[in-house]
């Protein structure tokens, strides 16, 4: 009996030690999919953006996959990702109905979405996507510096950003804005030339849409953006928020 009891105790100790070892192992990294197909204007900064996103992933414990292939948008493939990132894709009627359904299912199941700059110059024909991304590109003036004002300074997505924030970029004017989005940052149209939104000019926002977490920033046109620590801080905050 004593021998049997000792064996039980030993097995308990070993199993407990094994459980602690398993719990101490690094957890699987969340994965994000970066999509950057261009059927319209091609941003030369996409290459720098991909490099920056890989670096952010390595430094912040998430895995980055990239694609320009619409066939990646199927339910089986997308289920391995926590977040889809649209890095300056362009074009209309890019996805077929099955691919749209897979993307929508991903969002409905709680997937995260991050849109960068030209993600609003994409899928104009798809009303669901227009509401997801929060609006569509209409026009832009020349690249120039503008003053940005942080609208929600206490929010984690903009925490630690300067306000005002002086930034050089291509400033999109928008149409068909989804009024349900929560605006994080606005451009001061008096600080640059070419703003057409009556100085009510959002450039970064977030919302919960159809089951998923959505973050968009209109910044990210230039190559220099992807080595700008302030912009990358803001972008990383959006990715982390969408992953969680």
TrEMBL record:
Record InterPro entries: Class_I_gatase-like, ThuA-like
UniProt key word DNA damage: no
Signal peptide bounds: 1-19
Coiled coil segments of this chain: none
Domain ThuA-like: start-end pairs: 32-242
One Pfam family, short name: ThuA
Key words of the record: Signal
Keyword Signal in annotation: yes
Designated name of the protein: ThuA domain-containing protein
Organism from which the protein derives: Pedobacter cryotolerans
């Amino acid at each position: 009996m004593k021998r049997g009891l000792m064996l039980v105790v030993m097995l308990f100790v070993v199993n407990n030690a094994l459980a602690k070892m398993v719990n101490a192992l690094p957890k699987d990294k969340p994965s994000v999919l970066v999509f950057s197909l261009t059927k319209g204007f091609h941003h030369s900064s996409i290459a720098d953006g991909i490099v920056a996103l890989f670096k952010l992933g390595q430094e912040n414990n998430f895995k980055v996959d990239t694609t320009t292939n619409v066939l990646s948008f199927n339910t089986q493939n997308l289920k391995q990702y926590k977040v889809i990132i649209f890095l300056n894709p362009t074009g209309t009627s890019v996805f077929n109905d099955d691919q749209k359904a897979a993307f929508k299912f991903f969002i409905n199941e709680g997937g995260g979405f991050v849109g960068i700059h030209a993600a609003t110059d994409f899928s104009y024909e798809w009303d669901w996507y227009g509401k997801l991304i929060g609006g569509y590109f209409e026009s832009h003036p020349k690249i120039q510096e503008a003053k940005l004002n942080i609208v929600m300074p206490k929010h984690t997505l903009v925490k630690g950003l300067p306000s005002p924030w002086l930034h050089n970029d291509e400033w999109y004017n928008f149409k068909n804005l989804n009024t349900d989005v929560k605006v994080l940052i606005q451009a001061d149209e008096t600080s640059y030339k070419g703003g057409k939104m009556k100085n009510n000019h959002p450039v970064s926002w977030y919302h919960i849409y159809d089951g998923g977490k959505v973050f968009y920033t209109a910044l990210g046109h230039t190559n220099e953006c992807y080595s700008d620590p302030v912009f990358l801080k803001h972008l990383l905050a959006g990715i982390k928020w969408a992953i969680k």
